[in-house]
Design brief:
By secondary structure, the protein is α/β, with parallel strands linked by helices. The chain has eight helices and nine strands. Helix 5 links the parallel strand 2 and strand 3. The chain starts with 8 loop residues before the first strand and ends with a helix. Bound molecules: ligand BJW. Ligand BJW binds next to loops.
Length: 238
């Protein structure tokens, strides 16, 4: 593969890429799902049953991200460099709801599981930027209705965002990278199979659930393996 040819790249990222920025993953031993149950905070049923508890869970995470104390790490910055210097398109499809790719300088980012610093009104559909706490009784700034505001995130049982664009990009890419994701959650875990014409590589701390589907793998902390892989791709392709 020639490094200078115009070939498109799709990068899937998960919680592992933000771990070294201080954000918890979900399924590691000390991860978020070791502290709270999915059924209590990450389903539409949980929100309908107990919106106060769900708001509390997301308010704490939003406050941490909005504090200005969480910064992109070398892996986020390396991917921004890849996008800036690679002659083809580089699309980052992130499962993460943090904004560390954007803070790191990436422009072409698709948040398939939503964004923590946005809220949506279930009544009028308006999506707005939001840095503060959210409560079950607040009024929508657009339609003024109360009780319809929720975090702009994708819970289990809901359709992830941007799927048509993601599948089109996977169909047309020549390199598919999967970074810092355990491969437990669909449809993201199936992207490697969809990227059938591409060279596929997993960059993770340890082999994921779908490790055997990848042609190439590099294991270690993202700040090391992603920066090294990006330098390799920019120097000589894959
Ligand atoms: C490091 C590191 C370091 C650590 N460096 N690496 C049966 C079969 C197939 C599917 C289903 C099924 N039953 C139900 C489903 C569907 C369901 C699903 O997948 N369930 C599974 C549990 C089986 N999926 C859905 O419901 C999705 N919607 C859907 O499918 O719609 C229908 C549809 C049909 C067809 C096409 C399209 C759609 C929606 C899923 C929503 C997920 N939501 C969450 C919460 C979002 C908001 C929030 O953040 O609170 O998204 S759950 C949580 O998991 C979050 C994450 O984005 C997601 C993935 O987690 P991730 O990123 O992989 O994190 P971890 O912790 O699992 O892994 C971290 C990895 O990093 C580990 O490997 C570490 O080793 C590594 N690591 N340190 C590098 N320093």
């Amino acid at each position: 593969m020639t490094a200078r040819a115009k070939q498109n790249i799709v990068v899937l990222t998960g919680a592992g890429i933000s771990k070294e920025s201080g954000l918890d993953t979900f399924r590691d031993a000390d991860g978020i799902w070791s502290k709270v149950r999915i059924e209590d905070v990450a389903t539409p049923e949980a929100f309908a049953r107990d919106p106060v508890a769900v708001h509390e869970f997301y308010n704490a995470r939003r406050a941490s991200l909005a504090s200005g104390e969480v910064h992109p790490n070398a892996a986020h910055i390396a991917l921004a460099k890849l996008e800036a210097e690679w002659p083809g398109d580089v699309l980052i499809v992130t499962q993460n709801i943090d904004n560390l790719h954007e803070q790191g300088g990436s422009r072409n980012v698709l948040h398939m599981h939503g964004e923590l610093l946005k809220i949506e009104c279930q009544i009028c559909g308006e999506i707005s930027n939001w840095l503060d706490d959210l409560s079950a009784t607040m009024a929508c700034g657009h339609c003024q209705a109360r009780g319809g505001l929720r975090p702009h995130v994708v819970w289990f049982g809901e359709m992830p965002l941007g799927m048509d664009r993601i599948y089109a990009a996977l169909d047309g890419c020549r390199l598919f990278l999967s970074i810092g994701t355990s491969g437990n959650v669909y449809p993201a875990a199936g992207f490697v199979a969809r990227a059938g014409k591409a060279h596929t590589a997993e960059l993770n701390l340890e082999p994921s659930e779908g490790a055997t589907f990848f042609v190439e793998s590099c294991y270690g902390p993202a700040t090391k393996v992603v920066t090294a892989y990006v330098e390799k791709v920019l120097a000589k392709g894959w």
